[in-house]
Amino acid sequence: MEPLIKLCGNQREADVEKGAFSPATHLGFIFVKSAGRYVLPEKAGSWIKRIRPAQKLVGVFVNPTVDEIDEVLRFVPLDVIQLHGNETVSELLKIKETFPMPVWKAIPHQKDGLATMKLFSGVAEGFVVDSKVKGAYGGTGVSFDWEAIPAYQQEANRQNVPCLMAGGITPENIKELMTYSPEGVDISSGIETEGRKDFHKIQVITKEVTGHAYKFAKS
Length: 219
What we know:
With 219 residues, this protein is an alpha/beta fold. The protein has helices spanning 13-20, 41-51, 66-73, 89-98, 113-119, 149-159, 174-178, 199-218; strands spanning 4-7, 26-30, 56-61, 80-83, 103-109, 127-131, 163-166, 184-187, 192-193, 196-197. Strands 1-2-3-4-5-6-7-8 form an 8-stranded parallel β-barrel, surrounded by 5 helices. Residues 6-206 form the N-(5'phosphoribosyl) anthranilate isomerase (PRAI) domain.
């Protein structure tokens, strides 16, 4: 099975271009005004129109209203909505009823992380497991205890939905991460140099992820 590789936090046209020419499966855009990597929907939409990336487009939101998502969709042809806040099951269901596309739920890794994942069983169509950092909803560059990955992956397999690992993934530690055989990775700061997407870093990470999947498939 092809591994999922999401390059997130694209803030400029050059970022999207680099992602489009990579083996990534998803490109992510942050539509959270308080976030450092926030991008205007109009801008993101214009880049996508010009570049036409083949990757699926993911919009990242934190506790959004239906109107906020609708506003983004006026400009950006999203394939996936990713909720990265404290959204409840009922709120997620409302979003799913309104928008005909998969909705992923970000789960902060903590004691009850697995229980939270189980709570969204049959509702979320995918998960992103990220580090729990006080006062932040992701994009911190901090990794969590990767020994927990197999349990999350097993629960996602039981639910028959994709599961991506996020938080502090870099070219330096991607080899170690892949020893836990995650189904997918979600990277933002780890593919940047001075706040801009770095094509060399993208290549190093994507090569390691796809190479591991190929070896795993052959074994």
